[in-house]
Amino acid sequence: MIGRRTRTAGTLLAASLALAPLRAEAQVSSFLDGLFGRKEQAAPEPEAAPAATPDASPAKKPAPKAAKPADKSAEKAAGAKPGAKPGEKPAEKAADRAARPAEPKVAAVATPAPAAAEPADAATVLAQANAYFNGISTLTGSFIQIGPDGRRIGGKLTLAKPGRLRFDYDQPSPLEVVADGTSVAVRDRKLATQDLYFIAQTPLKFLLREKIDLARDLSVTDVSNDPAGVRISLEDRATFGGTSRIQLLFDADVKTLSQWRITDPQGYITTVQLSNLQKGKAVDSSLFFINYGRAEDKAAQQAIQQSQRQ
Q1: CA gap 289, 301 in Å, rounded
Q2: How many independent structural domains does the chain possess?
Q3: How far is CA 86 from CA 92, 107, 270, in A?
Q4: Does residue 130 lie within any of the structural domains?
Q5: Residue 281 belongs to what domain range?
Q6: CATH number reported for the structural domain that contains residue 28 in this entry
Q7: Largest Cα–Cα distance in the chain?
Q8: Residues 285 and 160: beta-carbon distance below 8 Å
Q9: Angle at CA 197, nearest 5°, toward 192 and 242?
Q10: From 216's CA, which of 23, 49, 92, 229 has a CA 20 to 30 Å away?
Q11: pLDDT digits (tens, 9 = 90+) for 106-128
């Protein structure tokens, strides 16, 4: 029988590492930390050393000696007025100025600045992304999760909006993550246990809500072109433990979501790469069932198990 336990994400991490030391399970734990945040605090960054203060101000250079006045006789020979400043040209006579041809005027030509690369049209991209998510009723496919330590683990993704989501991890991991629209359950099939979380603790609103407006429901921090397509950067301040940063990677036409990346409040990054996605495929609603330990839940679980055996 599946027992009910409610823990913080940090407790889940400790339990999964102590009871299930397989590398795959540790990778799943890092993914859950990306969803729900970590209990332990990140190590503080070392304080920057104060800038060195010079012991004394630099010595002033001695002022140059004043030049000796020019010889007045030399000034007369050069045609300059006595007392004129050094380098000053002698005054030009009016007749000479009139006889001199006028200098042609040249118009100043400004050098054109190099053209900057066109930024992504944020409003258009966000409208396309909203249309993509809001056009999903069901979604199935494969995923590869890359944890903060760089290790990878694959699995299957099943989504039925609103709020129902399931991650089935490949062996040897015994874990599965199920959301039923109200809660998220992390199950260990080997130990027959589950941990429950409020669905609002996850930063996956873009997948779970029936209708999403990224600019309204999250904070959009950047929309940019990417070599693989278009990248949308978001912040979710409502997740467990603080603000999570989310990056969504679409193809160039914003018609397919190929990846999301979550940076949890402590700075740990988890990336999920998607493939073989199918929209609108019929899915079994029993995949999203969570047993909360109530009598009706036990009866429903028995009915599900019986139908699976048939």
Answers
A1: 8
A2: 1
A3: 17, 33, 73
A4: yes
A5: 3-36+120-309
A6: 2.50.20.10
A7: 125
A8: yes
A9: 140
A10: 229
A11: 344 444 443 333 445 899 999 99
Q: What are the tens digits of pLDDT across the range 260-273?
A: 999 988 889 999 99
Rounded to 10 deg, the angle between the 23-36 and 9-19 helix axes is 180
User: Count of residues for the chain?
Assistant: 310
Residues 238 and 223: beta-carbon distance below 8 Å:
no
Q: Where does the chain show beta strands of DSSP type E? A: 3-5, 138-146, 152-160, 164-169, 175-180, 183-188, 193-198, 219-226, 229-236, 244-250, 257-263, 269-279
The fraction of the chain above a pLDDT of 90, given in percent, is 39
**Is 269:66 a contact under the CB 8 Å cutoff?**
no
Average pLDDT over residues 169-192: 90
The two structure tokens encoding residue 306: 């019986």
Residue 47 dihedral angles phi and psi, to the nearest 5°: -70, 140
CA distances from 181 to 136, 177, 203 (A): 15, 13, 14
DSSP bridge pairs for 159 = 139, 165
Q: Cα–Cα distance between 25 and 17 in angstroms, integer? A: 8
Token duo for residue 220: 């959009």
Which residue blocks in the chain are alpha helix, DSSP H? 9-19, 23-36, 72-78, 94-99, 122-134, 205-208, 214-217, 295-309
Angle at 120 (CA atoms; ends 115, 122), nearest 5 degrees = 135
Q: What mean pLDDT is reported for the chain?
A: 73
Residue 41 lies in a domain: no
φ and ψ at residue 178, rounded to 5 degrees: -130, 130
Tokens of 74: 């030399």
Kindly state the helix (H) or strand (E) to which residue 291 belongs, with its residue range: none
Answer whether residue 188 is part of any domain: yes
Q: Indicate whether 84 belongs to any domain.
A: no
Q: Is 164 helix (H, G, I), strand (E, B) or coil?
A: strand
Task: Please state, as a whole number, how many other Cβ atoms lie within 10 Å of the Cβ of residue 29.
Answer: 22
Give the position of tokens 């795959």.
Answer: 24
